[in-house]
Design goal:
The chain is an alpha+beta fold and 229 residues long. It folds into two domains: 4-147, Nucleoside Triphosphate Pyrophosphohydrolase, CATH 3.90.79; 151-222, Orthogonal Bundle (Arc Repressor Mutant, subunit A). 27% of the residues lie in helices and 28% in strands. Strands 1, 2, 3, 4, 5, 6 and 7 form a seven-stranded mixed beta sheet that branches. A two-stranded antiparallel ribbon has the order 8-9. A hairpin with a 2-residue loop joins strand 1 and strand 2. The longest helix is centred in the middle third of the chain and has 18 residues, at 131-148. The N and C termini lie far apart (53 Å).
């Protein structure tokens, strides 16, 4: 039998994939690393778990320490444990993801983060470690979620237009949706409140404003309602 000592030589990290939506573009929050390995490379906000904290606590702490973000709901996605994924040794990472409104939070780099910035999902270069793979896994989870739950509404302003809503789903699902069919389906769900207001200060023709009726959605779910785009 192998010695138990050899099983206590691995480290554990947490990596956070924070999605946001801005100007019809889906984005992810990245840090520029200020230490080796991969110094100066863009990476997901992640770091080591201390021996006396649980994973969820570690994810919240690391996100706050590197980006300044607090009170963000984080959902665990999966573990990544390729034997040589970290150049310094055996490191297993647990990925978390979240959806936030970009303009509702202020980010500030600290600790090993030299910079922290939002990056367009569609224009990403190669990230540090296996973070492109981690991002893809979390992006796939997001796509599945938006088809079955109205989580996309979390990324919009409190008041939004149907065009903004459609652009959000097109950005997440990476596909063009038929305008008429999308609007017909969304309105038929009875999950939007017509505010009887129009956009102001826009260069184009003002559009009607809506907001998400969360109370009605929760009532529908209790009765077996299934949200599907």
């Amino acid at each position: 039998m192998p010695s138990l000592d050899q099983f206590f030589k691995a480290a554990i990290t947490v990596d956070n994939v924070i999605f946001g939506f801005d100007d019809d573009d889906l984005k992810v929050l990245l840090i520029q690393r200020g230490e080796e390995p991969y110094i100066n490379k863009w990476a997901l906000p992640g770091y080591f778990v201390t021996e006396d904290e649980d994973l969820d606590t570690a994810a919240e702490r690391v996100l706050a320490e590197l980006t300044g973000l607090t009170n963000v709901y984080l959902e665990q996605v999966k573990a990544f444990g390729a034997a040589k994924r970290h150049p310094l040794g055996r490191v297993i990472t647990i990925a978390y993801y979240s959806l936030i409104k970009i303009n509702a939070f202020e980010v500030k780099p600290a600790s090993i983060a030299e910079k922290v910035m939002w990056h367009s999902i569609s224009k990403l270069d190669e990230l540090a470690f296996d973070h492109n793979e981690i991002l893809e896994a979390c992006f796939a989870r997001l796509k599945r979620r938006v088809r079955g739950r109205p989580v996309g509404f979390e990324l919009l302003p409190r008041k939004f237009t149907l065009t903004q809503l459609q652009h959000l789903y097109e950005a997440i699902l990476e596909t063009e949706l038929d305008k008429r069919n999308f609007r017909k389906k969304i309105i038929s769900m009875n999950l939007l409140i017509d505010l009887n207001e129009m956009q102001e200060g826009v260069a184009h023709r003002p559009a009607k404003l809506y907001k998400f009726d969360r109370e009605k959605y929760e009532e529908f779910v209790a009765k077996g309602f299934s949200f599907e785009i």
